[in-house]
Amino acid sequence: MKTYIIGLFIVTAMLLTGCNSNQKTENEKEDKHEHVDGDGHDHANEKDHDHSEGDGHDHSNDKEHKHSEGDGHDHEAEAKGESHADEILFTKQQAQLVDLKTETVAPGSFYNSIKTSGQIQASQGDEAVIAATSNGIVSFTNPSITDGTAVKAGQPIVTISAKKLLEGDPSVKARIEYETAQKEFQRAESLVKEQIISAKDFEQARLRYETAKTVYQAQAGNMTASGVSVTSPIGGYIKNRLVAQGEYVSVGQPIATVSQNRRLQLRAEVSENNFKILKSISSANFKPAYDNQLYKLSELNGRLLSFGKASTDQSFYIPVTFEFDNVGDIIPGAYTEVYLLSTLQDNVISVPVSAVTEVQGLNFVYLQIGDEEYTKKEVTLGQNNGERVQILAGLQRGAKVVTKGVYQVKLAATSSVMPEGHSH
Q1: What is the phi-psi region of residue 192: left when phi exceeds 0, alpha when psi lies from -120 to 50, beta otherwise?
Q2: Sign of torsion over alpha carbons 143, 145, 150, 154
Q3: How far apart (Å, rounded) are the C-alpha atoms in residues 307 and 284?
Q4: What is the average pLDDT across 179-199?
Q5: Is the distance from CB of 339 to CB of 285 less than 8 angstroms?
Q6: Where are the strands (E) in 260-308, listed by range?
Q7: pLDDT at 261
Q8: Whole-model pTM?
């Protein structure tokens, strides 16, 4: 009985195994049938077939095809080419209104420079001091006389009077003393002839007379009904008015300074670090604090007078002094920026200072790239001599740099308007 049961189990297992094998075979045939039609067409490669149609057209590059349209406009090539995003539109009419000017970049001569500060001073001999010739109260002949007023040589500036002072009017006292000394001298002349007085007494009388005469004559020519008149010794303009109306002055006290203003001096202060370069300095450019105009000594008949050989105890700077002609609008006493010009270099690329703009610490120039198209270009600057600035990097020979109208082009750069044919 036990043997029968075991045999039955084995037969059952064999039957189940065969059924599973037949079912797997049928499934495989069925799957294969789904991919093979009755006409023998195999769809197993339909995934590849979708991208390769019967006409031989390959759609695997459809992504690229979408960016290459029938009009021949290749956007991929344009992306690789020069971008027009930084192009600035500035019409010819706008350029004419602002008198826009450009300069073609080319290597040339350039003066190295030392930038420092300085002051305009009057040259020696071009100034004179109007001093009081008597004690008394000052009264200006023209109350509106002030700094900058033009005066002529011999023109009365003030009148000094002491009539109401306790000490009395010096001019009146001088006249009285002169007349008294004159009478004593005349009397002494007659007495000495008769040997009534000694020669010594006569000489003393003569000395008192000559002294009183000198004092009186010094004031007699300037005596007026209101007091002693004080005149300007030279023609020019009032540089400094040192006293006020109604102020008391003593003999010799300065009342005002007159400057002819024909020749001026430029005194620059140079750091000790640049002492070795001073020997190579030949000229200078300067820009006063009150004016944006740059003055060049080479155009003002300027010359180097001297430079210090040492610094003082109170300063670590060495003075360098120039002299030049005043063109009429330079103010003595004004402080100024100074560019001391030293050695001359050749084959240097430079542009006018007006061509350079600064944005967040970076320096730029604007280039003209078409009749009405401009672009902004970053540059690296070198030395600046006040007139031109050296370009170390960023510019090539032949570029057209905007030198006048830079600010207007910079404003146009903020516009979103692009030239026709360049808007994508």
Answers
A1: alpha
A2: positive
A3: 13
A4: 87
A5: yes
A6: 263-271, 283-288, 295-296, 303-307
A7: 73
A8: 0.54
